[in-house]
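Model it.
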Amino acid sequence: MTSNDDLAQHRALKLLRQHNPVPDEELTSEQQQVQEQTLKKILGDEASENVASRRVKRLWPVLVAASALVLASVVAVPMLSPQPADAQEVLLQASEAAASAPDLAEVGIAGQQFQRRVDADNSGEVTTSMKIDASNVLRVEVATSPGPISNELSTFAQQLQSHNGEPLTMVAEANIAAGDNGKLAQIVAEHYGDDTARGILEFLMLPGVNAEATQAFYRMLAELPGNKVAKKPATEALSNDEVVTIERKGDGLEMSLLPASGRLIEVKNLIAPGLTTTVQAAGLLGCVNIVEQGAPESVSLACADGNYLLTDLTWDNWNAPEAQGRGNAWVNDCDPSCAEAEQKQYPVTVTVSEKRNCGYNLDVYNKLSVTYGEQKPKYSEQQESFDIGCAQ
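Modeled.
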């Protein structure tokens, strides 16, 4: 009959042999005798064979427990959580995502890239709505918070406003140099000197920079020393995407981005210390669009000119799935010819519908219809519909 101690010995030996990469060969009778004598010396009792035997038996539960710990550690190793990505991995992931993002080159001359950003410090904020077309011409609307704002914010607002209606040359330069990292680095240096990281982030915060240039800028940023992933994100996304914040202690910058889409959504201390730049919305739109946060008072329905303009608009339920407004349509009815005719005013009812997402936190109406009353332009239908909003 086998005792419990014998069973314990057997189980412990079996476990230890399974996890011993080099099992011992069978001992000879002389080696066995030497081992027993050594064991007696370790136990401190050479005179009593029984006492040694009892002490050895007391060791078996300890050996079994040790074996169990070995097994537990072997099993636990594969269960360890994966290490979080470092800053370089995050930036390279954003680079690859940005490379596949749609840009103006795919839309053509009718497209616009839109961005609404807020630059804020303790004194107030500047909200900027920017649209840039395939010719890199920038349209800017700037709004400042009530009350006095800091010199940094005031100067920034004035500089942006001064570019309204003009080509944004630094964006054009970057897009032309896309594919030549050396040239892109030179452009950054020309505008920002040795402040390379800040310069790259300034470019990434501008609308109109194409996918290839954006990809290259992220790669350049990933190669710079001093990037470190923050323990927790500094902000939340206005979408369901994961946010990762990267700190650059050396130059006081902190950037938050969405690695899955390659979009930069916030940078602290970009323009000046204590100032935070945040992207509220961004996306690719067609030439006719309505991106105002509030109900618009006017809408242009002509891409290249002002030959079809809705004015004096008042709305009943703006931001609902379908909204109705009333106003006036100013239309060139081309009678006797478009060159000779003048714009005339007609009372109209306007309906907008079919909201869609066109990018980051950018939900806009994609259908607009104009209904005339008793009077209408000579060559117009009683009701006309227009595709507006998203470029794709």
